[in-house]
Write a structure and sequence with these properties.
166 residues; alpha+beta; 7 strands; 3-stranded antiparallel sheet
């Protein structure tokens, strides 16, 4: 039985929660809906690529929260007796936006094997994703080895076709 180390915490997505775990020879994606669990193993020897795409999701959430805070403050000014409640709610919106901005931009991470490409929902913040991926790349290279420039030239060099040799 493999000993697992938690790579990332629980992240809600599509009414599911996912965690990423690290073993000696693979990464495990555990997804739960509350009453069912699904596990996907990605062995280091099978991983072909890891894709990271930066998204504007966090920035969009911050703009929305800031707009809600402005509307609440405006409402508090024009409605008598509601200033304290509206200002409190606006403060909460601005605190959530500041907390979100502190963690930096968001991203989508996908892992590709020969069989499929799977999204890794626990990796949503770019800074944390880059840190975890750097750790995974070292383990993948140790498992698969590295290709030297000479090997790349040998693989990509056009081979002589038997019909062309006379």
């Amino acid at each position: 039985m493999a000993a697992y180390k938690k790579l990332s915490g629980q992240r809600p997505h599509d009414r599911k929660y996912s965690r990423l775990w690290l073993a000696d020879d693979h990464v495990l994606l555990a997804t739960t809906t509350g009453y069912t669990e699904e596990y996907r193993r990605f062995y280091f020897s099978d991983i072909q690529a890891i894709f990271v795409r930066q998204t504007g999701e966090g920035a969009g959430q911050n703009w929305t929260l800031t707009a809600i805070a402005i509307v609440l403050l405006g409402l508090g000014i024009f409605v008598s007796g509601a200033m304290i409640i509206c200002a409190s709610l606006a403060g909460v919106c601005l605190m959530v936006a500041a907390f979100n901005a502190f963690f930096g931009p968001t991203c989508i991470v996908e892992i590709q094997t020969a069989v499929s490409t799977q999204r890794l929902p626990p990796l949503r913040q770019l800074r944390a994703s880059n840190r975890i991926i750097a750790q995974l790349v070292l383990l993948i290279r140790a498992s698969q080895g590295e290709t030297t420039p000479e090997q790349i030239v040998m693989i990509t060099a056009p081979s002589a076709h038997p019909a062309a040799i006379r």
